[in-house]
């Protein structure tokens, strides 16, 4: 199931966490995005606060041509890059949730009409990656 939230796109998957991370990484790659960063939130919270949390990663995804176009349009837009993708265990612990930040919502903060075509293309590519998770 795919839904649109105010600042992101969400899809629930009936697959284990590790499988979801692998599938979303591959789907993003097919749309020209590489993973620049991976933050293991569960491990970080355990290490820093000694608290237990469900498996949850934040992936920093980047499409270099789109990033270059955005930065060439507005040098300050780097504050909004890369595109954040989160994958986490659902409440049952047997499924997973994938959420992708909506580039239009993120770049909309910049209030730059010149960035909107770039944001739209990024959104379309990210939505295709999310839709590919159903296959």
From TrEMBL:
Protein name: DUF302 domain-containing protein
CDD domains the record matches: DUF302
Gene3D superfamilies (alphabetical): TT1751-like domain
Organism of this sequence: Ardenticatena maritima
Pfam families: DUF302
Domain DUF302: 39-97
PANTHER family according to UniProt: SLR5037 PROTEIN
């Amino acid at each position: 199931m795919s839904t649109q939230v105010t600042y992101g796109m969400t899809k629930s998957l009936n697959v284990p966490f590790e499988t979801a991370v692998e599938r979303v990484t591959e789907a993003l790659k097919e749309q020209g995005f590489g993973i620049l960063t991976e933050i293991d939130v569960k491990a970080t919270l355990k290490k820093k606060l000694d608290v237990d949390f469900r498996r949850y990663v934040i992936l920093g995804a980047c499409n270099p041509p789109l990033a270059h176009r955005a930065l060439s349009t507005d040098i300050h837009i780097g504050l909004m890059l890369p595109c954040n993708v989160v994958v986490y265990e659902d409440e049952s612990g047997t499924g997973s949730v994938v959420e992708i930040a909506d580039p239009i919502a993120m770049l909309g903060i910049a209030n730059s009409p010149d960035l909107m075509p770039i944001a739209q293309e990024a959104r379309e590519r990210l939505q295709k990656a999310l839709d590919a998770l159903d296959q």
